[in-house]
Amino acid sequence: MLPPIAWVSHDVMSGEVRRSPCSTRYGGSCAKVEQGRWDGSGGGAQIIIRFLVQISNQSTGDLKVETSQPSGTHSPSRRPRLTSITSLPLLTTQPIKDRRRIMADSTSGQHHWNGVLNNALEGVGNTPLIRLDKIAQAEGLKCNLLGKCEFMSAGGSVKDRIAKRMIEHAEKEGILIPGQSVVIEPTSEYSRNWSGANDEAATLRKTSDGSGIGLAMACAIKGYKCIITLPEKMSLEKEVMLRALGAEIVRTPTEAAWDSPESNIGLAAQLKEKIPGAVILDQYNNPNNPLAHELGTYPEIRYALKSSNLKRKDIAALVAGAGTGGTVTGLARGQRHAEKEDGVKKAVIVAVDPVGSILGGGEPGNYIVEGIGYDFYPGVLDRDESLIDKWFKVDDSEALPTAKRIVREEGLFIGGSSGSALAGALKFLKSEDGKVIGQDESANVVVIFPDSTRNYMSKPWFIKEEQETNPLREQLRSILGRDLDDPLRKRQANGSK
């Protein structure tokens, strides 16, 4: 029997090596390159070379890849060259069943936490995929409705992933240096916008969602100072959490247009010009935003399905809200790549945004739900029709009650944008195009739950109780002779003070 063949991806900029794991035992200890391919799709920001390798090792093994890079701008005519490839220990025993490349994160198919973590950043991602059977049954759906629970990440949001990746890649590229000022600017301008040095690094961020908390967490761990420009409509809980992590908060008018000097983006740009050495990471244009999901979130979903007891192991439909667009773009790229390279069945990719956002069409306007939707098109949102199949608009009257329903019926402490995602998923599954999937008992429908209840507990929409009959509450009122939240009336009835 010949040793197995596996695809290996080497990210030249970061040094990360990803490969589909192999548990088959063979004698010897070597890895032979059978075929190479260069991928410059990152526009110069991410240079990835992929090799089809034949692996022969004594035990389960990973690979160490070293390359030499031509000087100057990376292009197909200046391809990085392989200089060496050797086998290293690997922590997984998941076998390769064919010769197709299986996309995996730098965890090499681990997809769970092993042992003791060194810090909170190692607790980012690796979130569970959970059945939503009560809601599915109530909605008359027969498919497997599954929630990817990003609120269980260390920072409580899907944005932890991009914050971690943007900072770590900026560090690896020599852009973020402890003890010096930091440029946080669109990736294409990293090299020419970094300048100056202070005693402590200052991290400047334009944010309108959970990425601020993820970034502040990373900065707290790594010792960078962090400045957040935050729209007024963002919740008090987010501000308190950011301050607890050591970030400085600057509020901006919610109604300000994205290109206004008064907006959170405009103000961040002004501060960047006036604070020596400060630049902007820019989640809106940073390719590490979608890459965090293409190389992290998506492989986790596939691993969860493959290792489950579900009848089918593929994704029939994948639904995600669109803010910067990094999540849905990265997931869609991962899925389309798997369809092309691994032969998996085609999935329907559904993007959801609020009424009042222009991403999925319509006029700009105000809405309550946070973390998704914009009045401009972020650079990381890939609008190629081959990636995203459907867009669904969801208004606050649909999103916010759905969020509370998920908490109450499924016990998952998600936030408003998760309500938007599920409301959009339900719309799709009841539409003409989606009802075939919704009524298929073997179909797996994955919905991304990006945020946590933590950020919304003071919001009127979350605090307000639904006007509904509650037999248990009425029984308690009858027994106590008072409203449940009015102890004073009982004390007065007993003559106490």
From TrEMBL:
Family: Belongs to the cysteine synthase/cystathionine beta-synthase family.
Cofactor: pyridoxal 5'-phosphate
UniProt cross-references to Pfam families, sorted A to Z: PALP (PF00291)
PROSITE patterns: CYS_SYNTHASE
Gene Ontology BP terms: cysteine biosynthetic process from serine
Native organism: Trichosporon asahii var. asahii (strain CBS 8904) (Yeast)
Segments forming domain Tryptophan synthase beta chain-like PALP: 122-451
Matches recorded under InterPro entries: Cys_Synth/Cystath_Beta-Synth (IPR050214), P-phosphate_BS (IPR001216), TrpB-like_PALP (IPR001926), TrpB-like_PALP_sf (IPR036052)
Keyword entries, A-Z: Pyridoxal phosphate
Protein name: cystathionine beta-synthase
One annotated GO molecular function: cystathionine beta-synthase activity
Stretches with biased composition (Polar residues): 62-75
EC number: 4.2.1.22
Pathway membership, UniProt: Amino-acid biosynthesis; L-cysteine biosynthesis; L-cysteine from L-homocysteine and L-serine: step 1/2
Reaction it catalyzes: L-homocysteine + L-serine = L,L-cystathionine + H2O
Nuclease found in the keyword field: no
Catalytic class of the enzyme: lyase
Ranges where the record places region Disordered: 62-85
